Amino acid sequence: MTRVNPRSVRAHNDVLAATMALLDEGGLPAATVDAISARSGVSKATIYKHWPNRTAVAAEAFGLRMADAIPLPDTGNARDDLAEQVRRVSAFYAGHSGRVFAQLLAATVADPEAAPYFREFFLDGRRQAIGVLWDRALARAEVRSSVSVETAIDLLFGPLIFRLLSGHAPLTAAEADALSAAALTGLLPNT
Predict the structure, then answer these.
(1) Nearest CA-CA partner of 176 in 161, 188, 187, 160
(2) Residues in CB range of 61: below 8 A, 6 or more apart
(3) Rounded Cα distance, 58 and 40, in Å
(4) What pLDDT score does 68 carry?
């Protein structure tokens, strides 16, 4: 059995709390290792002992905070559950947290050391949560079993990320409803 040093756990938690506060205040640009160290009281050497860089720290802090930020609906049917979740995610992306998400996503694209932290602490948890909705829908035979949950997630939520990053269209409830309706109904007329 591996013993966990309470000081190490406390330092880890202090770094994550300081990083989240900095992300809240100024986004990823504010979360430098110097600022994280000053805010947390944890040395830069200790920070680098646990994370390869500031983007990795920020990705973990953001992911842990956001794990419960978008609760799953349970309306009793797949169409309403999925449409409501698209609305909730769209609202999340439209706010300050969405800007931080976009900054982290952009930073991790060019940072192979930080990308696994972003996937593990943010994306994996969000995708697993949507998997719960999809499994409910499959159990009620409300969605096609031939469509994988990964495909469904990309179709429903990918457009929101594209809009967030490109800014070509708004992230509003009406737009979220239009996107989910098109994804859930399909683009081609019934023939």
Answers:
(1) 160
(2) 15, 16, 17, 19, 20, 23, 31
(3) 13
(4) 77
Contact, 89 vs 177, CB < 8 A? no
Specify the 3-state DSSP secondary structure of 38. helix
What pLDDT is recorded for position 187? 74
Structure tokens at 17: 């709390």
Please state, in angstroms and rounded to a whole number, the distance separating the CA atoms of residues 34 and 56: 15
| The token pair that represents 132 in the structure block | 């719960």
Single-letter amino acid, residue 161: I
CA angle at 53 for the pair 35 and 90, rounded to the nearest 5° = 85
Q: Which of 176, 152, 182 is nearest to 164 (CA)?
A: 176
pLDDT in tens, 67-115: 778 889 999 999 999 999 999 999 999 999 999 999 999 999 999 999 9
DSSP per residue over 107-167, as a string?
HHHT-TTTHHHHIIIIIHHHHHHHHHHHHHHHHTT-S-TTS-HHHHHHHHHHHHHHHHHH-
pTM: 0.87
Residue 4 to residues 8, 9, 12, 120, Cα–Cα distance (Å): 8, 7, 12, 21
Which domains are delineated in the chain? 6-65 (1.10.10.60), 66-185 (1.10.357.10)
